[in-house]
Amino acid sequence: MLGICRGRRKFLAASLSLLCIPAVTWIYLFSGSFEDGKPVSLSPLESQAHSPRYTASSQRERESLEVRMREVEEENRALRRQLSLAQGRAPAHRRGNHSKTYSMEEGTGDSENLRAGIVAGNSSECGQQPVVEKCETIHVAIVCAGYNASRDVVTLVKSVLFHRRNPLHFHLIADSIAEQILATLFQTWMVPAVRVDFYNADELKSEVSWIPNKHYSGIYGLMKLVLTKTLPANLERVIVLDTDITFATDIAELWAVFHKFKGQQVLGLVENQSDWYLGNLWKNHRPWPALGRGYNTGVILLLLDKLRKMKWEQMWRLTAERELMGMLSTSLADQDIFNAVIKQNPFLVYQLPCFWNVQLSDHTRSEQCYRDVSDLKVIHWNSPKKLRVKNKHVEFFRNLYLTFLEYDGNLLRRELFGCPSEADVNSENLQKQLSELDEDDLCYEFRRERFTVHRTHLYFLHYEYEPAADSTDVTLVAQLSMDRLQMLEAICKHWEGPISLALYLSDAEAQQFLRYAQGSEVLMSRHNVGYHIVYKEGQFYPVNLLRNVAMKHISTPYMFLSDIDFLPMYGLYEYLRKSVIQLDLANTKKAMIVPAFETLRYRLSFPKSKAELLSMLDMGTLFTFRYHVWTKGHAPTNFAKWRTATTPYRVEWEADFEPYVVVKRDCPEYDRRFVGFGWNKVAHIMELDVQEHEFIVLPNAYMIHMPHAPSFDITKFRSNKQYRICLKTLKEEFQQDMSRRYGFAALKYLTAENNS
Predict the structure, then answer these.
(1) Angle at which helices 747-755 and 721-742 pack, to 10 degrees?
(2) Residue boundaries of the structural domains of the chain
(3) Residues of the chain whose pLDDT is less than 70?
(4) Distance CA 622, CA 597 (A)
(5) Under CATH, what is the fold of the domain 456-751?
(6) Which of 193, 246, 645, 674 allows an S-S link to 680, with CB 3.0 to 4.6 Å?
(7) Residues facing residue 592 across a β-bridge
(8) pTM, whole model, 2 decimals?
(9) What is the chain's Cα-based Rg?
(10) Looking at domain 138-352+394-412, does it have CATH number 3.40.30.10?
(11) 495: Cβ contacts below 8 Å, ≥ 6 apart
């Protein structure tokens, strides 16, 4: 493309030269033919005829003019030759330019020239910018640490994926928390042509910990300074983004700007749009040194290979050490140091047009970066107020951000046709398993759900908990959907120990949950509750997948496998920890049963003791769980014995037994083939039994099921005959699998099922 533009410029210059030079020469010579307002003859004969005074000076003047004319004629001949060569080369460049590329409209680096171009609507071919290969990988680096930043990154990534047409390689400099969250997210997201690598941010702390920093980003806000050292040595260029960025265009347009760098330009930055570095925000305001308004580092283009050759590490360190002698600390983290380096070395910067970083902090000049929605490229929420920032068009920006915040991430799993993807073992295994299913099978959707990979965001909110040192700690495990959110506060009031919850939500519902939780004093006061979002996909409620997700992410040696509709008795957490010691769970295979009861009243005076509960049973305020509709589920608990029991007692497994139990964290997972309603807990208890767990009923423990409207899945079970047929088929297949896995020990389950 550059070759075409240069060729056409030469063609135009040559054409103008051919037209203009002879004319100018003619005017010059003609004007020289007048002396004192009278014509001066150029011919010696004519001169002699008109003037008797033919002197040596006029002869020399005519000779010099004749020499100049010959020189002009020679220049014209050279220009014609150059023109013919340019015409011969231009078609070849055009042909080669259309191979596997697309062009990007881009600015020049000069915001005024760019704005003039937008207004003029210049769309000539020479005004188009360097191309990005169709399948060229775009590299993006992001520093991310903690729970909140991990949520922000997801919105940024969604906006990039929505617009992108190229393979992407994300380089995430993350702490252990962010790496656990984002590694699981990307692994379960399974977006084609996206690669993610992690770099341990905690190992980089020593590189920047010597720099005092007042910015709210903390030590992680300085880590962009060490990217040349952190990222792979063979990585030549990278786009660096803050987590509070939203893209409104294809990131390949920004990647194409690298082709505009010239000379020693190694940093692509947008000018800072606030007056911070001008030092006039308040009295005695003393910012770090900067060139003019300075530059914002929310979006950076880094030419890593050149920076390494320039010894960037040494450059920024020396600058920081010198400035810190007077400034004492940074106020804007890495941005202060970048600007101090640029102040000394302005040749390092290629200034990006300001629409590549529209900065939405209070009192900025961001409105000068756009005249229309189509001008917007990148929005930067760089105020601590975030969405509450003051801006003339903040409502529009907020809606754009919320669009990606609540956008269904599953829709971004689209292929980049024509671009080969790296082999993904998990994806290949999944496709193989799905291909083995019979799509004509009436139970195909049930079977398919077992292999569905649900996008999962672990620890959606801040989590902080260290298990008790005595190795008796117990985590309550449960799962829920949006219609059970009201149970969370009540459970937290009844259970003071750690909780692990898997929530089945859409992207929009996840944001509703976030607002609900942040508005609850009860939930915000608890940091030992792990909320794990499993995003909706498919037509069934994946109840056992949710349980497995919640079970997998506990940090205590034991777990209480409950359901969200149950309220545990007050003090159950401490009672279970004592029972762990009493029954020696650490050295035996036991499953402690917490007897389950239910009420049909939405308002219940919760019993504070076993005696009070027995009184409510006798009065008909409470019932043993599912006494009216599914007696077999909890009958083996032997409630008659429990009424008078003072010590734990053992019960035997029976068909369809599904108690709520406390077990070690290494117990088997729930079987994923059971979705929606039916047999999801029964199968798990059966597997505990075949693994020779003893079922021990606790005499002074209880939990009460609170009433709620029937779930959608139980409604389908009751109304859809095919649903019930498929559930029966899955039960039979599960029992056959048990026989194959456990042999003779599993035969009793087949017999028990036939007799029931």
Answers:
(1) 150
(2) 138-352+394-412, 456-751
(3) 1-130, 281, 362, 383-391, 423, 425, 752-756
(4) 7
(5) Spore Coat Polysaccharide Biosynthesis Protein SpsA; Chain A (3.90.550)
(6) 674
(7) 662, 696
(8) 0.80
(9) 38
(10) no
(11) 476, 568, 572, 573
